[in-house]
Amino acid sequence: EKPITINTLRRMKADGEKFITVSLYDAPMAAMAQKTGVEVLLVGDSLGMTVLGFDSTVPVTMEQMIYHVEAVRRGNNKSLIMGDMPFMTYGTPTQALENATRIMQAGAHMVKLEGGAWLADTVEMLSERGIPVCAHLGLTPQYVNKLGGFRVQGRDDTQAEAILNDAKLLDQCGADLLVLECVPSELAKRITAAVSMPTIGIGAGRDCDAQVLVINDILGLTEQPPKFSKNFLVEAGDIPGALRKYAADVKSGIFPAEEHTFS
Ligand code: KIV
Ligand code: NA
């Protein structure tokens, strides 16, 4: 089977076919995702909270990210693997280049960075040197201390315009994907239409080109699950079934439903 590349994802956006992303952290889950046909695996720094017990993603280190990217890579040779760059490992373009190189060499095909216009030079630099970048806008969890909590972003017009402009700028700078987290559905829809890169939504409505959920939320492991997530294990009965149901419901437009979105 041919591996998924950024070209596959671009083609799917053009064809209006939704692709599936799961944030997961280990080899067996990565293998199961491959069997299910999940197009993109995100080794998210959410692992700080979902696996390591921290109360934010701020403490996550390069070593922890690399350890988990390697594990996911060993379990999967088909999906596109994206690795998060941890908090303050991409503060400058040079620092980003060094750390992104390590994540790529651990087995990722792309890195993900949180932030807007200030990342323009960094995205351009990585992109020009062969490191695809996924941007991440809206609720950017590494900013939790600056945002004053995990809250929906882009609800007022000024903020919404700022997010839209950041998305357009990073698109022009060569970003290949964009995660939109916890923004009103209407805004996510506008951004998805305005940029050439595919968008991946989480709490961003059904009009993104793709959806992402964290494996812990899909499997009901989260004590206080976020509004935008869904436990697919309840209906499906087993883990492979839960992944299949999530994928099928995204492809057919059943998930996310109104109850999982913000206005
Ligand atoms: O770390 C993560 O899992 C993420 C997704 C929630 C987008 O960044
Ligand atoms: Na993340």
Automatic annotation (TrEMBL):
Q: Where in the cell is it found?
A: Cytoplasm
Where mainly located?
cytoplasm
Looking up CDD domains in the UniProt record yields:
KPHMT-like
According to UniProt, the reaction catalysed is:
(6R)-5,10-methylene-5,6,7,8-tetrahydrofolate + 3-methyl-2-oxobutanoate + H2O = 2-dehydropantoate + (6S)-5,6,7,8-tetrahydrofolate
Cofactor(s) needed: Mg(2+)
Signal sequence span is none
List, from the UniProt record, the residues annotated as the active site of this protein: 181
Residues noted as binding Mg(2+) in the record, renumbered to the chain:
45, 84, 114
Pathway(s) it belongs to = Cofactor biosynthesis; (R)-pantothenate biosynthesis; (R)-pantoate from 3-methyl-2-oxobutanoate: step 1/2
User: Which EC number(s) does the record attach to this protein?
Assistant: 2.1.2.11
Paste the cofactor note: Binds 1 Mg(2+) ion per subunit.
| Record bears the keyword ATP-binding | no
Q: What Gene3D superfamilies has UniProt attached to this entry?
A: Phosphoenolpyruvate-binding domains
Cite the SUPFAM superfamilies for this sequence.
Phosphoenolpyruvate/pyruvate domain (SSF51621)
Q: Which residues bind 3-methyl-2-oxobutanoate?
A: 45-46, 84, 112
Q: What class of enzyme is it?
A: transferase
Q: Which UniProt keywords apply?
A: Cytoplasm, Magnesium, Metal-binding, Pantothenate biosynthesis, Transferase
Instruction: Give the superkingdom in one word.
Output: Bacteria
Subunit description:
Homodecamer; pentamer of dimers.
User: Function of this protein?
Assistant: Catalyzes the reversible reaction in which hydroxymethyl group from 5,10-methylenetetrahydrofolate is transferred onto alpha-ketoisovalerate to form ketopantoate.
Q: Which family does it belong to?
A: Belongs to the PanB family.
Q: Which NCBIfam families match?
A: panB (TIGR00222), PRK00311.1 (NF001452)
Instruction: Please report the name of this protein according to its UniProt entry.
Output: 3-methyl-2-oxobutanoate hydroxymethyltransferase
Source species of the chain: Biformimicrobium ophioploci
